[in-house]
Amino acid sequence: MVDAVSRYEAIGDAPVRQRRRFRYPDSLIRFGVLLALLVFLAYSVHFLSLDLWRLLGAFPRLAEILAARYYPPDLAYVMDGGFLLSVLQTLQMSLLGGVFGVLLAIPLAWFAAHNVTLSRLLAYPFGRFAIMGSRAIHETIWTILFVTVIGFGMFAGVLALTMFCIGFAGKLFADEIEAIDMGPVEALRATGAGPLQVFQFAVLPQVRVAFVGISIYTWDVAFRAATVVGFFGGGGMGWYLQRTVQEMQTTRVAAILVTIIALVSIAEVLSGWVRSRISRMH
Asked: Is CB count within 10 Å lower at the N or C end of the chain?
């Protein structure tokens, strides 16, 4: 009798299964979306006349070209004082662009966060449009635009990286702000605190660690983009890369590429270490 009662109680505690008219609607939707994507990809390959077998066969030929023309890299060229100065300029350009971009992205992210924005009719669309506009245009296009307006040099590169970082960091900042706990925000608002006080004492304490990590990651990405910006007129290592490519100095091109890969790897390790230390502080 006791066993029967215990079995009855166990059955009573079990979750009640809900009956549904369609057993697998979610699976059918996912299958339909996946099938549509595969059909679209197959149509795109056919429409663009892409010869995939020819693409796979190009890798051995690419290896032969690299071995014949780009090896060995002219490492003496990248040890020259002028090139080392360009490395420093690239680092400075990425640092300035990252700092300016992050500082401008913070207020824009505040405006673009739907839960704490100053005005959902004015500030919210302005912040969203500024961030999306910066993200929509590639850093190379920003570089070309600024070079056209103010000429070649580091100033154009810094401005291009600033716009790039505004779009990159602003989107991540806004997402972090929209995910905060609204309890402290509502408590401060109830006491009559102004918008700036609410942002300073209720929002920033919750996103401070995340903002620091995003800022470091933004600089990491900006450092990689700085070479591309320099290639299109922003100065730094990119200018040397552009010149050697145009002059068909393949061994020097290889040396510059090796240098870029080494510097990016070092920046990746350092930024990853700093972000891990910051995440443990949270």
From this structure: N
Residue with tokens 């972090």: 176
Exposed, middle or buried by CB within 10 Å (0-12, 13-18, 19+), for 184?
Answer: middle
Output the six-digit token pair for 237. Answer: 């290592």
pTM over cut 0.85 = no
Q: How does pLDDT run across 44-98, given as a tens digit for each residue?
A: 877 777 777 776 767 777 777 777 777 888 888 888 888 888 888 888 898 999 9
Contact 127, 111 (CB under 8 A): yes
CATH placement of domain 75-281: 1.10.3720.10
CA distances from 83 to 6, 42, 77, 250, 264 (A): 81, 46, 8, 16, 16
Cβ atoms within 10 A of the Cβ of 154, count?
18
Distance CA 145, CA 90 (A): 19
Q: How far apart, in Å, are the Cα atoms of 85 and each of 79, 127, 151?
A: 10, 37, 21
